[in-house]
Design goal:
Layout (H helix, E strand, L loop, with lengths): L2 E5 L2 H11 L6 H7 L6 E12 L2 E13 L2 E14 L2 E14 L5 E10 L2 E9 L4 E8 L2 E8 L5 E5 L4 H10 L6 E9 L4 E17 L2 E12 L2 E7 L5 E6 L4 E5 L22
Parallel strand pairs: 10-11
Antiparallel strand pairs: 1-9, 2-3, 2-16, 3-4, 4-5, 5-6, 6-7, 7-8, 8-9, 11-12, 12-13, 13-14, 14-15, 15-16
InterPro entries: TonB_box_CS
Protein name: DUF3108 domain-containing protein
Keywords: Signal
């Protein structure tokens, strides 16, 4: 950590992010239109979120290419039991990365539950520093961190599209096991290395038919997720065996094929 600055006004907390995301659609407009104006849709769909066989919620997502950027958006609504009361947790995601090398450009999420609002964001101050902004009900802080070498990915609870994005960016690259840098946004933010392993492809029953699915495994102890993707790199299924968590793409009559931009050469450093 480099520094922590308390921001007492909401606009100050979000000023840098407002500039960074000015080119992307607002959350509501993005959900209504299904794509950022002037962009090309790569993929969109819905993930069904279940735990030990019980459906908890849904996450709608869309991935677009706009100019030299890729825009990743999602809306997640999941039911949780909080303090003995069943409540809906709604999360919105808007993340922009480089189309060519998947480098993170900015990140913004919004969570609403029980009448409270939490905003999290990441802004790149330079090539060597990034800042995490966190705000709850209008009060927040910004904390600067040194940028780790290589590509940086972001994870946040109840936003499974972020895991799909990791898989999409890696599925066409040849590797057995490779390290990646993860920034995890939570009550206590962390930056750490994780690993993605490529396991043998296998048949998967999805959408009423059998498909040959590539199998990736995300490992960041004690967290281990298994992901199955089709030949175009679409995430079909993700599971966490220890808890019985299951995230499955809802089968649709017509779904646009994702067209992954040409992948950059794998860096020698973690990323």
């Amino acid at each position: 950590m480099i520094s922590t600055v308390r921001l007492r006004m909401r606009m100050l907390a979000l000023a840098a992010l407002a500039i960074a995301v000015a080119a992307t659609a607002p959350f509501a407009a993005a959900q209504e239109s299904g794509a950022t104006p002037g962009s090309r849709l790569l993929d969109k769909g819905t993930f069904l979120i279940s735990l030990r066989g019980k459906l908890l919620g849904r996450e709608n997502f869309a991935i677009d290419v706009a100019g030299d950027s890729m825009v990743v958006r999602a809306t997640s609504i999941v039911s949780h039991r909080i303090d003995g009361v069943d409540q809906q947790v709604k999360k919105l995601l808007n993340m922009t990365v480089s189309r060519d090398d998947y480098a993170l450009r900015n990140y913004l999420s919004n969570e609403r539950v029980g009448g409270h609002e939490r905003i999290r964001g990441i802004s790149l101050s330079s090539d060597t520093v990034f800042t995490i902004f966190k705000e709850v009900d209008g009060r927040g802080i910004g904390t600067a961190y040194p940028m780790p070498p290589g590509r940086v990915y972001v994870l946040e609870s109840q936003l499974y599209t972020l895991m799909y994005y990791i898989a999409l960016s890696l599925h066409s690259q040849p590797f057995d096991v490779r390290p990646i840098n993860i920034v995890t946004l939570a009550d206590r933010d962390t930056t750490a290395e994780a690993q993605v392993a490529r396991l043998p492809s296998e048949p998967l029953r999805w959408g009423g038919k059998s498909v040959t699915a590539s199998h990736l495994q995300f490992r960041q102890e004690p967290l281990v997720f298994d992901l199955w993707l089709d030949r175009q790199g679409r995430l079909l299924l993700m599971t966490h065996t220890g808890t019985g968590l299951r995230i499955e793409r809802e089968a649709a009559t017509t779904t646009p094929r994702p067209r992954t931009p040409a992948a950059a050469k794998s860096p020698s450093k973690p990323g």
